[in-house]
What does this fold into?
Amino acid sequence: MRSLFSDAPRVTLTAIYWAFIFYLLLPLTLMMAMSFKDANFVAFPIGEWTLDWYAKVLQDKQFLEACLYSIMIAAATTLAATVLGVWIAMLIVAEGIKGQVIIFALACLPAVVPGMISAISLRIFISTIDMPTGTAAIILGHTVHAVPFVVVMALTRLRSMPGNLVDAARDLGADSFVAFLRVTLPYLGPALFGGMIFCVLLSIDDFVRTFFLGGYRPTLPMLIFAKVQGGMSPEINAMATLVLVVTAAVGLYAEYLTRRARTR
Amino acid sequence: MEPVVQFDHVTKNYGSQVAVDDLNLSIEAGKFVTLLGPSGCGKSTSLRMLGGFEMPTSGRILLSGKDVTRVPPNKRNVNIVFQDYALFPHMNVAKNIAFGLELKGLDNKSIHRRVSELLELVQLQDYANRLPNELSGGQRQRVALMRALAPDPDVLLLDEPLSALDAKLRQQMQIELKAIQEKTGKTFMFVTHDQEEALTMSDTIVVMNNGRIEQMGDPSTLYGRPGSVFVANFIGETNLLRSTVLGAEGNLTALDWNGITIKADQGGLSPKAGEHLYVVLRPESIHCSATEPTSGNRIKGKIRQRVFKGNHTSLAVEVGDGAVLNTLVHPGDVAQLAGDDIWVGWKPETATVIPDRHAHR
Ligand SMILES: Nc1ncnc2c1ncn2[C@@H]1O[C@H](COP(=O)(O)OP(=O)(O)OP(=O)(O)O)[C@@H](O)[C@H]1O
Ligand SMILES: [Mg+2]
It folds into this structure.
């Protein structure tokens, strides 16, 4: 027989779950709501609604330039991290290479080092080698941070790859490079795509490393930060909402694609 | 004629484990050769060494007379059909088959022609654009076979390619595989642990045990004249009668088996009186009857077990103290049931003797 009492843990868990969702979504919802407010102050009540803030943001040269800059950095980061990450993953699964566990641990380290520490150490590093702050330094910092995620995703996929696919390619006349290009890489495809999207999002989102390594040209998070310091305005809300919607859409689309590819 | 494949004193060790032990083997062009043996006897290792995926610890491998021991897989003119087919999942059937041709540097037109030709050979013309996971097991099997045949290898290697198929399809594919081999005239080197499969398809069977060749010959020789207890047990069902030689009688030799005198073919040996030997007696060579046969070896026994097997019935007949002979009869031929008395008999020349030593080391 079921009593109210025996249901209690379940009810409690459900309640906690919904409370958590509420807590998660409330600030985002508030932020989005304010972006439509037809007034200069971010506060309730919202009297009139408007899309003016969006129009303003989309005409804001600074914002558009920061977007472009962030995207450029993300693209370069992704390219570098993908090449490095796949290469490291291949090393880890390769036969006859010693210290694979150590390679793996080292490759994953940047993912667990606190952003602050990593940012400071990178800053010290670039000044030691006389590298100026700016684009190259930012890309370097973002890449170090993104590589572990590519490694893990590529590794998971590589481990599920039937070992004799590469043997079959070699058998049919491919040298190891051609076999990698024509068999391993396409097999990695979906996982790699997911990993790359993740790199893009990581890079665009990165504030701490960018802050320490950046020059005068602001990336998107730096621009938003600067604007917030100048006082809250619904324009910032509109900016943030745009970023949120676009990144969420990209993330979901990537997830959908990888999922579809995986079930095939 | 020069053999296509030669293993010359090839040994392969994995640490202290000897996978292949001093293998010497020559294979003639155009033959269907099967490596047969129990799990772990070194069949795959031998095949992978020929394919270039394992390096022999010692010895040489020759392909069409050329030493290829140290040549990488992509530079050897042999192709493998893998056990799980290893079709490239992101390429359709035509692309899979074309893979080896592209790497050989053929032009598009010849590639296209060759692919259609091969697809036609296995009636898969309509499947050219399917992905491997949109095919049945048998179809995948055919595609893997055609992919390996496409670059026109000197030898086609097949590592248990039929083991993933169900029994019915397997029999069908055995026949199809043999037909393709005959049609193309290619040398096939086939690996299996299924003796029936080996008997069905092979021109030559190489029985392996513990990394060594136990016996090599055509199927009927191996079945009819097994050279060792291991081969006799491994190929087909058999009765092994441990007997003592009494003396020779022409081509035959007389032996004492559990106090019963029987005769058997000498099988190329020259047995001496007093020597212990095994007599190999296949179940289907034994005849059962209610009355005493007039000639040949004959023993009176009692049916211990009678099992209906569809197209035949198997009888286990107890003769003398505890010794049992397994026989095959047509269901209608013998009416006696378990517990009934019966005569078993066989022609001396249908049984052969083999030395009394277990799988030699
Ligand atoms: N990579 C390896 N490392 C260590 N030992 C191995 C390796 N490959 C094979 N062996 C050993 O070598 C022996 C022969 O293996 P092989 O795969 O050739 O057997 P097989 O005859 O193909 O058996 P099966 O019918 O089970 O496929 C086995 O004892 C196996 O354990
Ligand atoms: Mg094997």
The CA atoms of residues 36 and 91 of chain A lie 51 Å apart. Chain A has one domain: 59-263. Chain A touches chain B at residues 162, 164-165, 167-175, 178, 182-183, 186-187, 189, 264 (CB under 8 Å).
